From TrEMBL:
<dbReference type="InterPro" id="IPR039540">
    <property type="entry name" value="UBL3-like_ubiquitin_dom"/>
</dbReference>
<dbReference type="InterPro" id="IPR047977">
    <property type="entry name" value="UBL3_Ubl_met"/>
</dbReference>
<feature type="domain" description="Ubiquitin-like">
    <location>
        <begin position="52"/>
        <end position="135"/>
    </location>
</feature>
<feature type="region of interest" description="Disordered">
    <location>
        <begin position="1"/>
        <end position="33"/>
    </location>
</feature>
<dbReference type="InterPro" id="IPR040015">
    <property type="entry name" value="UBL3-like"/>
</dbReference>
<dbReference type="InterPro" id="IPR029071">
    <property type="entry name" value="Ubiquitin-like_domsf"/>
</dbReference>
<dbReference type="Pfam" id="PF13881">
    <property type="entry name" value="Rad60-SLD_2"/>
</dbReference>
<dbReference type="InterPro" id="IPR000626">
    <property type="entry name" value="Ubiquitin-like_dom"/>
</dbReference>
<protein>
    <submittedName>
        <fullName>Blast:Ubiquitin-like protein 3</fullName>
    </submittedName>
</protein>
């Protein structure tokens, strides 16, 4: 893990959505499991080989790392981060977990998409952006993936 990784910018309107084609305005209120992340201030640490380390980046540029299971969904992650909101993110605090959205590779993740479904590597660090947003954007008609 290094601190010199380049992360994509969130500027512009090219952000699409990943996940099911259910109503994009649906709130992530159905997080079913209680997930307890392992957080750390250390830059170097061992990531369990059966877990995924998420480095979450806020719009402000602040980052924090959390460890999750591949079966954890974007909704589970949002709830866990909200429940364990880092003290140094106080200025960026939100009123409820349901407005927290994850962005991976330029696309919003629907609340039911699991980390395993994304094919994220176990025992490694994956970078995602975490943004407050009430609704997901409509699918981009130019997105032909």
């Amino acid at each position: 893990m290094t601190t010199s990784e380049t992360v994509p910018s969130l500027t512009g309107s090219s952000v699409a959505s990943l996940g099911t084609s259910e109503a994009t305005s649906r709130q992530c209120t159905n997080a079913k499991t209680k997930v307890t992340p392992l957080t750390s201030q250390k830059i170097h640490r061992t990531i369990p080989s059966d877990k995924i380390n998420l480095r979450l980046i806020l719009v402000s540029g602040k980052t924090k790392e959390f460890i999750f299971n591949p079966s954890d969904s974007a909704g589970d992650i949002a709830q866990t981060v909200f429940d364990n909101w880092p003290a140094d993110w106080k200025r960026e605090a939100v009123s409820k977990a349901e407005i927290l959205r994850l962005i991976y590779q330029g696309r919003f993740l629907h609340c039911n998409v699991t980390l395993g479904a994304l094919g994220l590597p176990l025992g490694k660090t994956t970078v995602m952006h975490l943004v407050p947003r009430d609704n997901l954007p409509e699918p981009n008609s130019q997105d032909t993936d």
